[in-house]
Amino acid sequence: MNRRGKCFFVLALSISAAALLAGCTTKSTAQAKAQQAYLAGQNAALRQQLEQQQASQAPGVTVVGSVQNSQVPWVAGLTLAQAVATANYLGAQAPKEIIIKRQGESATLDADVLLNGVAVPLEPGDVVELR
């Protein structure tokens, strides 16, 4: 083989070796990549599970006082009367006043509002105190 042929052969061999090495993966590298893929899948599943739990635990309304169920699930259009009925008021006498707390502010209502049929809308996160 002449000198030009030898150079071409060495060049071809170098290119082939580089191509083979570029495609090769060591066992430890393959295991590390598999571990990363596994952990990424686990994290994605945990994030999805957390999002589902948070969605199912949407804030409801808390009723404080002589009630059987202090947590009332939120539904669109929930009124004060519905929340008190769902909480199952257990007091021996009707409450005298109702305090609604919303985002750090509070409003005091006469308990006759419930008897008069006035629809007082509630929002998620409201705290209703029966006194």
> How would you state the average pLDDT, rounded?
81
Structural class: alpha+beta
Q: Give the total of beta strands.
A: 5
Calculate Rg over CA atoms.
Answer: 35 Å
Q: Helical residue percent?
A: 40-55%
Rounded to the nearest angstrom, the distance between the terminal CA atoms is: 106 Å
- Measured by DSSP, the beta-strand proportion falls in 15-25%
Describe it for me?
This protein has 131 residues and is of the alpha+beta class. It folds into two domains: 3-56; 61-130, Outer membrane lipoprotein wza domain like (Outer membrane lipoprotein wza fold like). It has helices at residues 3-23, 27-56, 80-87, 112-115, and strands at residues 61-64, 71-72, 97-102, 105-110, 127-130. It has a five-stranded mixed β-sheet.
Write the layout of secondary structure elements.
Layout: H1 3-23, H2 27-56, E1 61-64, E2 71-72, H3 80-87, E3 97-102, E4 105-110, H4 112-115, E5 127-130
Parallel strand pairs: 1-5
Antiparallel strand pairs: 1-2, 3-4, 3-5
Q: What would the keywords be for this entry?
A:
single chain; Outer membrane lipoprotein wza fold like; 2 domains; five-stranded mixed β-sheet
Question: Briefly, what is this?
Answer:
This protein is α+β, with helices and mostly antiparallel strands. It has helices at residues 3-23, 27-56, 80-87, 112-115; strands at 61-64, 71-72, 97-102, 105-110, 127-130.
